[in-house]
Amino acid sequence: KEDEGGSNGSSGGGSKKITLGFSQVGSESGWRSANTDSIKSAAKEAGYNLKFSDAQQKQENQISAIRSYIAQKVDVIAFSPVVVTGWDAVLKEAKAAKIPVILTDRSVETKDESLFVTLVGSDFTDEGRRAAKILEKVLEKAGHKGKVKIAQLEGTTGAAPAIERAKGFKEIMDAEHKDDWEIVVTQTGDFTRAGGKQVMAAFLQSNPDINVLYAHNDDMAIGAIQSIEAAGKKPGKDILIVSVDGVKDGFVAMSEGKINAIVECNPLLGPQLMEVVQTVKDGGTVERWIKTKESDFMQDQAKDALPTRKY
Ligand code: AHR
């Protein structure tokens, strides 16, 4: 699926409009919709000619989109890679065509650091650590006693946020809670509500004693809440829930007492990306990783924060 914003040619000041080819992961979550809106509106604001395509969560679609941007000789390519591996060949083609590549949101695994200029996005490992630290507070607030039996809903298999959010969480769990916390079930829900709902229903069947859910995004937590309620349990009480993102619907669930805490992951990357595109086009240097700033939220902050959530 490809759509175009603006037209090629002169922007009036005599300089040629920058053409940016952007390959988006898909439209799997509220976070992703907010990210897409941010990129489209920031490109418009910057006066760039944006060529945007939605890969519907498929790596082969992203590879074809990047190849088509190379063939169209765009000025800069940016993309949010659905998974971390398997990019070297297409990125080498971009390099050979002298088109700079900027990663947004998610990283890739490559031995050749010259294949992309920078990553504009969050520290997902730290988000995982923050999720474990905020779970400590949630357990304390709930007066939880005894074993902590955790169900983990992972993001898309092979995606940077799924790998790193699991890693950061486990790091804290192994270092500080080896004797009392256990991940009893873990499976991907593909970052979608439908995935979260379906996998949580199966978790509750196989492990009815789960008392904590760690969901790698709000959408999966919201889907899981439906299955928890269908099983006659109270989300946020019988099963304490920590998720990642901080989209409006997550805040609604938190203000209703159904999610206990949210680790924010900021999707509004558009303005930063456009600045980086300009710098790269002007021949300037940028940092290898431009990290996004974000916060954590407990349930008691949800009602106040809700009216100010933009997405
Ligand atoms: O890469 C960021 C993640 O992708 C978000 O946490 C999730 O909601 C999205 O689908």
TrEMBL record:
<dbReference type="InterPro" id="IPR006311">
    <property type="entry name" value="TAT_signal"/>
</dbReference>
<dbReference type="Pfam" id="PF13407">
    <property type="entry name" value="Peripla_BP_4"/>
</dbReference>
<protein>
    <submittedName>
        <fullName>ABC transporter substrate-binding protein</fullName>
    </submittedName>
</protein>
<comment type="similarity">
    <text>Belongs to the bacterial solute-binding protein 2 family.</text>
</comment>
<feature type="domain" description="Periplasmic binding protein">
    <location>
        <begin position="22"/>
        <end position="278"/>
    </location>
</feature>
<keyword id="KW-0732">Signal</keyword>
<dbReference type="InterPro" id="IPR025997">
    <property type="entry name" value="SBP_2_dom"/>
</dbReference>
<dbReference type="InterPro" id="IPR028082">
    <property type="entry name" value="Peripla_BP_I"/>
</dbReference>
